[in-house]
Amino acid sequence: MFTIKAELSYQTAAATRLNWTSLGSMSTGSGQLCRKTFDMLFRYRFRQRRDGMVEVRISDDERRLIGDLMEQLRELLLSTSPVGHLDPSLRRLYPAAYVEEVDYELEYQQSKRDHLLERRLSHLDVVDATLSNVELDSDSVTAWITTINDLRLVLGTQLDVSEDDAPGNFDPEDAQQRHQAIYHYLSHLLGELVDAAGI
Questions:
Q1: Which residues are 19's β-sheet partners?
Q2: CB atoms < 10 A from the CB of 87, how many?
Q3: Which of 72, 91, 117, 186 pairs as cysteine with 152 (C-beta 3.0–4.6 A)?
Q4: Is 198 left (phi over 0), alpha (psi -120 to 50) or beta?
Q5: What are the domain boundaries of the chain?
Q6: Distance CA 190, CA 148 (A)
């Protein structure tokens, strides 16, 4: 399971109870939590300029969180052998092509896994190098999209959730729910970047 070392500010308030399904009805009178949550979920983090560059408007907390998750993903990827046992968390990153044909599947994994690993590590390197940037070129945007999607796929597999699972009431004292909140945050972040890039 990914360890959440850096947490978003609205998740660290122990007394907070946040109903994700009713965010749209929150009033500004709800105080600082409401403002932070609305800003976190609804402000635009990415905007494409006329020159094709994409502006990045994410907080330091978000950058630290993404960096921590990327570090753990890199370790998990590097612990995977070219063939044989695959960490269950990575099954969505290396989907089986021949579910019932063991020999064919082994040959497929031998031919594909190293290439996919090299590509994912390359994308991680790009995101790591541009994580503090305020703008991204098209190649960097592609790396960000791929890496954020990889993070959410691995975390979603660990939690046994998907984008079809709607967020429910959030309890910041519940470790499982904190991880689920991060999963939905990554999904939202990915969708926003894809929209901004016009992909």
A1: 169
A2: 15
A3: 186
A4: left
A5: 18-197
A6: 6
pLDDT tens across 76-104, in order?
Answer: 999 877 666 778 898 899 877 787 787 87
The two three-digit tokens of residue 40, written as one number? 């976190």
**How confident is residue 16, by pLDDT bands cut at 50, 70 and 90?**
very low
Burial class (CB within 10 angstroms; exposed 0-12, middle 13-18, buried 19+) of 151: buried
Determine whether 157 is exposed, middle or buried from the number of CB atoms within 10 Å of its CB (0-12, 13-18, 19+): middle
Q: Could you give phi then psi for residue 144, rounded to 5 degrees?
A: -65, -45
Name the one residue in this structure whose structure tokens are 């926003």: 192
pTM attached to this predicted model: 0.75
HSE-CB for 29 with a 13 A CA cutoff: 1
Other beta carbons less than 10 A from residue 18's beta carbon? 21
Residue bearing tokens 């993404």: 66
